[in-house]
Structure formats: structure tokens, C-alpha cells
Description:
Blueprint: E1 2-7, E2 12-18, E3 21-27, H1 33-39, E4 44-49, H2 54-63, E5 68-69, E6 79-80, H3 90-100, E7 107-112, E8 115-121, E9 126-134, H4 136-145, H5 166-192, E10 197-201, E11 215-218, H6 222-235
Parallel strand pairs: 1-4, 4-5, 6-9, 7-10, 10-11
Antiparallel strand pairs: 1-2, 2-3, 7-8, 8-9
Helix pairs in contact: 3-6, 4-5
Amino acid sequence: MQASIDIGNSSIKAGIFNNNKLLEAKEVEAKYLLKYLQQHAVDKVIISSVSENSSLISDLEKSYPNLLKLTAQTPVPLKIEYDTPATLGIDRVAAAIGALSHFDGPLAIVDAGSCITCDLISNKNVFIGGTISPGLQMRLEAMHTLTAKLPLLQLREPKQLIGRSTNEAMISGAVNGARQEIVGVLRQYQTRYPKLKVIICGGDAIYFDKIIEMNIFVLSNLVLEGLNTIMIFNDEL
């Protein structure tokens, strides 16, 4: 068995694979991760980390000497036309590769996590670039932190567009504002590629899955699938 591990800013998600087949995907606490991998008789591991959890990565390296850590220098099965490839988030690369295992371009990939990214893959399956903006919870936290009186709220679905209290107005502004932002970006992408397909992933995908009448697909394990594809690709080099 092999495992793909996505170490994000706020959670760790692991996927167990048998070759190309995803058997299980779940969030795992850092302290239970090694036990989880051992329970599934994992012998090969790839990780993508945007976190600075160096102790966890060190423990993984000790248990799995053949650990593949995805970096900007790791060979990947994707053509990238990005002006600063060294700064391109490895999670964005993995998501793009995962998306291309399901569909050919043109594709837009909306990853709704701590930040919201909206990346574009051309009709020739080339990663072009995209947008990065604050995630939904980050928007709520910013309103509280950077003002004197606005409260700190937890993310939830707005009851209506027009908030009739400060709390409801903040929730609507964060969620509906982000939705309209992404709609605007996707419409601009669609003018370039009329046959654009849109893939939604990430922990907050449920807030974006019905935002516009386009070819929308919700695929929650794109990064894990992309990581597994990268590991297989590197095994074959």
C-alpha cells in the first residue's frame, strides 16, 4: 500500500492507495498519523506540506526512509507556464495533476481552504496560473482582528443575502462576497475557454458547489490523487 499525505495549515489529510485506486481518505491528527499508516501496511509515502510541522516530517522520514517530499524541484507529469515556479504552491500543483486524472483541459480548479485558489489549465493541459484570495474563515477573522468592534464568528451558511444583524451581515459578506468573486473569475476564464470545466475541492467546497451554471464537479480528494500520481511518476523515472 502507498499513502499520500497533505499537511495543510489547519489539518492533515491522508489517502491510502493500492496503485492508482484510492481506498480511503480521511483527516488524521498528527499524533495518530504514523499509527494510521502502520495499520494500513503502508510502505511508500509522499507528502505535500504547506505547514512548518518539522517534527512530524522528521518522524515520517525516520519511519519511511524512501519518503518523497513534494517540492518545486520534484519531477511532475505537468507542463507549467508560471513566471515564478519556485513560489508556486505544491498543493496547487498536486490538485492540478489530480484534476487531469479525471478530465482534460480546459479546467478551472477552485480549492476552497485556508485560502481560496482558482487555477486555470489550458486546453493543451498546461498549468497557466490563477488567483489566490483569503479563505472564508480568514475573512471573518480579518474583520474581527482589524476592527474595534466586529465579533469573531465561526463560518456557516448565510441565512439570506441581506443580513439583518451585524453577525448575519458579516457571514453574508464573507460567503456571498467570495462566491461572487469566484463567479467573476470563472466567467473571465470562460471567455477565454468556452468549454471550461470547473472542479471544486477543499474543506469549504460545499459553499461553492452551486455558485454558477457551468460544468461543475466536486472532487474532494484532488490533492491526494495528484500526490499519488506524482509518486508513481517518480517511481517510473
